[in-house]
Batch of 2 targets.
Target 1
Amino acid sequence: MPDPSLSLVELEQLLERIFLNHGTSQDVARSLAANCAAAQRDGAHSHGVFRMPGYLSSLASGWVDGRAVPLVEDIASGYVSVDAAGGFAQPALQAARALLVSKARSAGIAVLAIRNSHHFAALWPDVEPFAREGLVALSVVNSMTCVVPHGASKPLFGTNPIAFAAPCEGRDPVVFDMATSALAHGDVQIAAREGRQVPPGSGVDRDGQPTTDPAAILHGGALLPFGAHKGSALSMMVELLSAALTGGHFSFEFDWSRHPGAQTPWTGQLIIVIDPAKSPGHGFAGRCRELVERMHEVGQARLSGDRRYRAREMADREGIRLTPEHLQQLQAMAAGVG
Amino acid sequence: MPDPSLSLVELEQLLERIFLNHGTSQDVARSLAANCAAAQRDGAHSHGVFRMPGYLSSLASGWVDGRAVPLVEDIASGYVSVDAAGGFAQPALQAARALLVSKARSAGIAVLAIRNSHHFAALWPDVEPFAREGLVALSVVNSMTCVVPHGASKPLFGTNPIAFAAPCEGRDPVVFDMATSALAHGDVQIAAREGRQVPPGSGVDRDGQPTTDPAAILHGGALLPFGAHKGSALSMMVELLSAALTGGHFSFEFDWSRHPGAQTPWTGQLIIVIDPAKSPGHGFAGRCRELVERMHEVGQARLSGDRRYRAREMADREGIRLTPEHLQQLQAMAAGVG
């Protein structure tokens, strides 16, 4: 018998029930469920239903406020700020999104600075929708201390991803979402769970020695930046933009030790949106298509987001497959016993 | 006898005379001389006086217009566009700079899109001055086809650097300027000239085979992106922002073969400037200092721009040292026989 499969809407509704059942508001439940279901649909398993126990455990710990109401501040013609009030970043983005888009279309560029927020999800779901509206978006978010700066001996930075999305004529938007660490934290967790080694150069153990054992990285060890000093400099930039600029916390500034079960980093997030319609000359999306065509011509078969689009297409056709155990676990969570 | 040394002003004046003597306008001469002298002073030799023959040869070829007058367009409250009119990017930035800063201070964020421009210099001199005025700046510029996209077999991207600058309380701004290729083009040229090998993973030869011979990379070979697929995705982003968004040319779109001696890439440049005074909470520069102090505490002795600051300090004290041969070569250029 094949694994059970759900439509995107069915999975969203199931996850929404789980969040509601664990004390979040309707807005928060909808926003987190949409993000998590989209990741599962796109085969981005490290940010899919795999994350649900971490969400629930963080909510139960009192570390994150599942009923927080974000406070949107209209600062200037290109600047929106949101105090997420100790809640998640995704509902904060939703609350400010329309204002951000309207400013970007009017000023040509606008920035959204989210602070006092928890981000526990993939970053591409935050930027891809802007590209579907014809806008270019760049976002950074810091996380929790687990990456050793290049040349240092102890961890300080988070995995600090950078995500980018741009509209592309005749195809899905060009989107990437990269940890500035050698590996994303979720991928290390999944490798540990599955008993796989991680590639050399990914991390160090508790003594600062190179290791390929994901458990040694997770328990007292740390990750390394990707691309040595360059990835490390980008990670520093992410700290400055996500925390210093927004008024949020650096990855090393919070301490969840008094909240057993807490897993969500309490930091900040920055999103820059540009309206390419302001650009002179040729249309941006057509130019993007030209670049992608040339990338294919020189032999780059697929772009970084294309694996997600292929998984999405299959899920749209055949549903989102879950193992019977996963589905049962989710149903138990929705019933309040998970 | 020690090598001759010049003050920054003396070197700027010498370089300015050279540019004027080779047909540039006063504005262009001043702007390029300041950039090139600053690179030499800071020990950034791949963009210092080493570049002068390339500038002059490009000017002589008629490929770049040394007397171009940039046309500044005030597009929207956060958007400035400049048609560099086939001239250099630095005078285009100078022409639009005051408007860009005023928009960033008013809107909170502003973008400058330069097109139809030649950039043959380091990128950090373009961003560092914004940080000295208390602003955060991010710039990207594409260049000329010499980098193989990750997973491809032929070069397509340029070295496509990303530069970032942020004000930092009690010290020089935090600045980085990184090629998204494994090495900057100038560093490969210098290695070739000095007969040194480049690190493994930097490039391929004309048959697409890995090589550490800089000559094999320069003659028919190509560079690789830094950090595999991640650096490659960033390089793609730089093409999109610098060329597609500005209305400029992609790195693969120009052909200087009919202009013997031409070396300057004819592309575009994007600069995003953010005013952190719009940020709620603590002052940005103080928060930046906190991060840098913590980076030192965990063992990162110096940041990526610090080597330049140390060289600058020494040059301010002892002058900028040039070999007698270099000084003679520059003086000959200034006299019109170089």
Note: Chain A touches chain B through 75 residues (CB under 8 Å).
Target 2
Amino acid sequence: MNDIIRERLARLRAWMARHRLDYCLFPTADFHNSEYVADFFKAREYFCGFTGSNGTLVVSNDWAGMWTDGRYFIQAEKEMAGTGVTLFRMADEGVPTINEYLKAHMRPGETLSFDGRVLSARLGLGLEEDLLPNGIRITYDTDPAEGAWPDRPALPCHDLFLVEDELAGASAADKLAQVREKMKEAGADRHLLSGLDDICWLLNIRGGDVACSPVALCHAWITDDRVILFIQEEEVTPEAGACLDGIGVERMPYGAITGFLDTCDLHGHTVLYDRERMSYALMKKLQTQAEKTGGQWVEEQDPTKLLKAVKNETELTHIRQVYLRDSAVLTRFLWWVKTNAGKIPMDEYSAALKLDAMRAELPGFIELSFPTISAYGANAAMMHYEATEADHADIRAEGMYLVDSGGTYRGGTTDVTRTLVLGPVSEEVKRHFTAVTAGMLRLANGRFLQGCTGRNLDILARGPVWDLDIDYKCGTGHGIGYMLNVHEGPQSIRWRRIKDETEAELLPGMIVSDEPGVYIEGSHGIRTENILEVVSGSKNDDGQFLGFRMLTWVPIDLDGIDPQLLEPRERKWLNDYHAEVCKRISPFIEEEEIREWLKEATRAI
Amino acid sequence: MNDIIRERLARLRAWMARHRLDYCLFPTADFHNSEYVADFFKAREYFCGFTGSNGTLVVSNDWAGMWTDGRYFIQAEKEMAGTGVTLFRMADEGVPTINEYLKAHMRPGETLSFDGRVLSARLGLGLEEDLLPNGIRITYDTDPAEGAWPDRPALPCHDLFLVEDELAGASAADKLAQVREKMKEAGADRHLLSGLDDICWLLNIRGGDVACSPVALCHAWITDDRVILFIQEEEVTPEAGACLDGIGVERMPYGAITGFLDTCDLHGHTVLYDRERMSYALMKKLQTQAEKTGGQWVEEQDPTKLLKAVKNETELTHIRQVYLRDSAVLTRFLWWVKTNAGKIPMDEYSAALKLDAMRAELPGFIELSFPTISAYGANAAMMHYEATEADHADIRAEGMYLVDSGGTYRGGTTDVTRTLVLGPVSEEVKRHFTAVTAGMLRLANGRFLQGCTGRNLDILARGPVWDLDIDYKCGTGHGIGYMLNVHEGPQSIRWRRIKDETEAELLPGMIVSDEPGVYIEGSHGIRTENILEVVSGSKNDDGQFLGFRMLTWVPIDLDGIDPQLLEPRERKWLNDYHAEVCKRISPFIEEEEIREWLKEATRAI
């Protein structure tokens, strides 16, 4: 593999030399700043071998570096070994950011090139700010991958499908009215929307253009009385077409967005867009056109972002039901692994396939919400490890096995992690396992005033791990879409401040993951992840109190717990949770044997 | 009192009418945005009667409103009863900010007037931004108080005194070198410093111009090779003068700062200043002059702010010693109240006088660090209640008594709160008392990664209170100066985001208060406050872990604790703390009787 990467980089450098480009930058995004992207957009992976969901590659004529976050340090090191690409561990002490690196290494007159369509406006503006004053040139209107990726996959193109109002809880017309209200509040009468999940949520449509994310490639232009959807016409089934026509959505070809913006008369109009979800190229085009025709723009968070994050009652009802079924499937799978490990042949890859197949049988199953992480032993220390047919470990009756998985169903998107103890484990491992469990429970049982953001709450989950002088290098939790992306903002549970990022208050109806962990490189990895719904508590003169309700109902392996290390309240939380797991999940399990096991697995300690 | 206030307001309104001013605004600050201010600056108190340390009064020709924060809601209501001034409870749901109120009520062409010298640059700019677009005029060059406050006190003028290097741990020359280094980093070669504690810290001087804060009124102008101190010459004793001369500090009269800025040639120079600590008037003057003479400016936090917040080893050594002695005094006082309440006549005021006198006998005592809060029964629900000779409650052998007090000594500034149980209390009160104690201990025993700010940690202290559906409407903790202000930034422990405010990371050597509370209006108030020193824990690949070390060693009244409501680890923390209190404080107590009581008061539960 490493030779292949070196060959690809050589081809890229030859292309760069022909075009007199000194540095090329490849982020991980499509034209919509999506987290998961179609193969067409995987240039970063193509040129460095790193397959994780977050990373940026920078290539010069004699050097290449790749920046990724703590979830992927171990994986990236492994995947890029021998490629000559240097790993930059983001947020580690002394590690420069991409901008800092470029600022320090690029000389005046040199040119940085990237495809402006796959870089977010915010990042592009950041590069402008840091590099232009040093006399560095930026070109963003050609795609460096284009010239050096001969066998590049085509743009994906799959059929749209509809989310009926009974499933959505609100019609597209209602949602449009809400968005137009927010546009008005922002002083805008035009809105360019590029986030795929935002557009799909808004119009109650779904697609199949991105793996693990039921969305279609599209842009939307919204005015007081018009909606134009830029989409590949081949994707629009007769049914979807009729529905879009019915709510007055006009259609133009996907690629026509640039021409549309080039000729758009913005005189007297104000366009709302979100730097975070808009590509640098589209933003530049929009601003140029506004300046040319006498229009204005206002940058704000896409109104859809918060609207879709706060789930409505219909969505919540479906989600709760979907999580029950999904939890039952995982419980059956855990029983199977726990009972059979060491007795029958079993490996990370085959186990994942088995779990994926079990999920696929559930009613309303659409696809996995992300590639199943099935990690045995030391592999579990890689937060986003993916076992492959070619490269995986056997699962044996010793150590631990971590499985992080989820599905998207008609009625919700799930995400859940459990770590199984398959043989005797050390006191140290139990200390880690118990701390992770305690952290998950402390956050899930947290009570707080409305106004809190995830930064206020993170320490509830992370505290027990920090008490052991250990950190996990990622957030504690993320929002989750409804039949949409498994990672969805604006809310999150994390402790670090991210520059320029707005912190979103937690609001009733939001759902977030709660997934503390311990990851010891080369040894073991433990993560326990439940999904929580934010619910209202009492309201008094001090304000509106909030708390969480569990959505996930899967046993936590008691073989990993040292009860002596739990506080009484934590033990009570665990026992109460397990009692509920048994009560709620048993009805979904037909086999007496598994029901008996579940009873034992959820016993009070 | 209310008639007096009404009369004063009438006089003010007559003056406003003569000068055609529609609204006047009185913040709580001196020319240096100090928290505690000399009597000369107490215009807000003069015109509305509210004596708290934070509040802004707005007066129109037929209306007046006063904004203050949650610590003062009860007190302000009481003090302003009958004055006709409306109380605005800041941060309460639906309560407009001052700017929102003015924006909604002032009409185009109307004029808002305030003394630009007593409003921070940030607040002044905020008013500009919100009001100027609406056609509202702002005048800031006359002092509205001047015309309507005939018997106004004079500017204070007290002798300077010196802090020897052995006490400061760093010479003024060393500190100046550090500040100049930071100026360079900020790209500045001029620095206007207006924060009194910052200047006193920098030059190792102290003064007596502000009650409870050993500082002198002054400004400082710092260049690469000059320091000009603007100060009342009468304050400069021969000794102080010789010392300042010795380190090359030039002197100009206090009031000369405006003239100096008016004639200063800034061509080719860049001035650093801090919006938070600079008056609106001086900032305007500086910017005008820079524009006129071709200079630049850069707004950043005063470099002194962070430098003085991180205490050096010498300071910490003195602080630890000072806190021991101060804790011993408070312990003796608590014994006296606890033993004598109900037996001898005792009231809030006389008790405070007694405690203040006991502190005054300690070696190196300079002054109280703030007016002692001595509050019995329901009065303790007012967070910053101050009993007076004329208005105070008796202390009886029932309910609870709260005392929050501190001193400034040569060697440190202290702050400590304890709540005593003086008779039988309800289960509810015990629940509150125990939660407050648990919260204080949870924060004090917190372990966290460097990079955390108080917003990450606040929930440790507040969580047990929130678990009861109760909030305390203030931060959990503040930084503390060294022989300086009892409230000192930049660090704090609080959960709410404050717009535009930088969140400061906690760093080893910082000290912060840890003071959760429960305040039930009309019933009771409980607060337990220890001061903590931030200390380094282990450092590994995950980062630098930090924790706290206690500085305060005073028993927490076990009569308020229900041991059943404490988790085992909390009980252990309490017992360990009490064992240390007994060990550390006993040597400072001569009387056998009190030592015996202390032993009992710090028994393990």
Note: Chain B touches chain A through 34 residues (CB under 8 Å).
